[in-house]
Write a structure and sequence with these properties.
The protein has 27 helices and 16 strands. By secondary structure, the protein is α/β, with parallel strands linked by helices. The chain has 5 domains: about 50 residues, no CATH class; about 160 residues, Substrate Binding Domain Of Dnak, Chain:A, Domain 2 (Up-down Bundle); about 140 residues, Rossmann fold (3-Layer(aba) Sandwich), CATH 3.40.50.2030; about 190 residues, 3-Layer(aba) Sandwich (Rossmann fold); about 30 residues, no CATH class.
Length: about 650
Amino acid sequence: MEGKASIDPAVACMLEYCEAEGISTSLLRAEDMKPCPIGSGKSGICCKVCAMGPCRLTKPDQVGLCGATADVIMARNLARSIAAGAAAHSDHGRDLAFTLLAVAKGETPDYRIRDTQKLMSVAQLLGIHTDGRQINQIAEEVANRALSAFGQQRGEIPYISRAPRKRQEIWRKLGIVPRGIDREVVETLHRTHMGNDQDAEHIMRHALRTALADGWGGSMLGTDISDILFGTPTPILARSNLGALSKDEVNIVVHGHEPTLSEMILTAVTMPEMIEYAKSKGARGINLTGICCTANELLMRQGIATIGNFLSQELALMTGSIEAMVVDIQCIMEALAPLANRFHTHLITTSPKAKIKGAKHIEFDEHHALDIAKEIVRMAIDNYPNRRQTNIPNVLDNMVAGFSHEYINYMQGGLFRGSFRPLNDAIIAGRIRGAAGVVGCNNARICQDQAHTSVVRELIKNDVLVVMTGCGAIACSKFGLLLPEMMEHAGKGLREVCEAIGIPPVLHMGSCVDNTRILTVLTQMANEGGLGEDIADLPGVGIAPEWMSEKALSIGTYFVASGVYTIFGVTSPVASNPEFAELISKGWEAQVGGKLEFEPDPAKIVEKALAHIDAKRTALGLVEYDPDRFGQSGDRNIEEWLETPVEARPGGARSLAEIEAD
């Protein structure tokens, strides 16, 4: 089972238990339920936008009842998925803006502004006057300006000014600068309604505009406001995988995407009265962990352990050790409800936008955040005596997480000399071949975590610096790829850079909404000079090896619109129409400098990525990449150090366990 469903040993252990107990999970259901061969876009195209359909196009030159051609139907379907993904991530940003507004007005005593420097930076970017004003006044105007970006009808959303100048000029020339976040999502749905826009290229150009409204709008606002409210991440040592669950403590798991409630639950579980209450029920204490991007939010700021990514959520319940799983929005399986009932867990929904039949609903309100969090924690503690036999896999890994774009800037020169000059110079010299953002979901149609980890291992071996977010980052955390020790698997040039700065060759940059941090890094690299004038000039790629959600399509499309060659794994929704596939690859490349391609083979993904990076290096006139040119400065020493037992290492180097204990 391990080779077919997952390479994660903890998941393999739990799947054996599932099979023995006859319990169904998404990984097992994937073997029995095959995807629709028509709707998937592999052998046909399906249109469902009106009640005359569904119209299934399976023959050459076949059209729908209304005459819609294959390329128009495919454009409608893809554009609608991009709009749904943009709506989901941008709505996340809207909710955070409302929370910031409540904090600024003094309406919610349980939150405060933790990063005033980030607030000032965002205020400056939004053109807000700060001199002589109180923090709450500035925060209120930032929140209102953010909220106005969602509903504005004309002009340009404010964060467009954050992109390189050349990139802004390309967007304006094509007419794809978003006017307002909500407006572009609504217009996508309008354009793709039956009998409306019937030109595939025209539909997809607006899809670019809609995705930009997400990446340079709602998601970017969400990332910045999270930093203002909860702190801008800096590197932190943390643990991952199911072994982070406790056998003798109350286990509470947060799952979903929004940090507002999870941060407050963290506050509640650390309160002395809550810990004493847990002890009164027979527990040693309270253990908070996370799954998916809520886990990433707590992980990168507070060092809270993650017990897994998307495909681990059902298996976590089957350990029998979780008293409460608290969920908010996105990537939450309905299958959790019956499993929770079987394994004593309270499944608690908290968002007004998302209920699950069979779950308990405690609606979250930021105005009473701590009281609600304490209610949830008490419910979990009261459930501890109901725990029966537990089955927690003895699998636990370490990682370093929390590389915000601010910290990446700082780590290359310190407080006064921080810049992207060292990174650019390393790429120019050929020590670093290029950069890759490897992001995205898990998909039950392929072996869990295998594509993420194999792609990342090959990239760093070839001197490509990797940045990661979301479930992809969690996948690599489970195999030690987010540790400095992984530099021994990196190419010689990349290893030199990582040693000099003191970083892993794979950098955790946050949750899936934090892909906007990568956009900011790319912009800073372009603005620094020496690697062209635009994001499209950089030797870099974006990769989603195990994608499954509409949000991933929105993310991929805003990276393409920003000038990045983006490759998706797993499957292609455009495979049956080569002309349309060329529209979003070569066609988009001619317009915006980026292209979108689908490649199921991880080895070919790496091959294409490296070829693109090398082509960009050639176009910039950089030295040809040579894997043996560098690596003489200390390689022998580092190899000897890695082979030396910890206790015998010069300088008394400590193990990760010892560092963690401190």
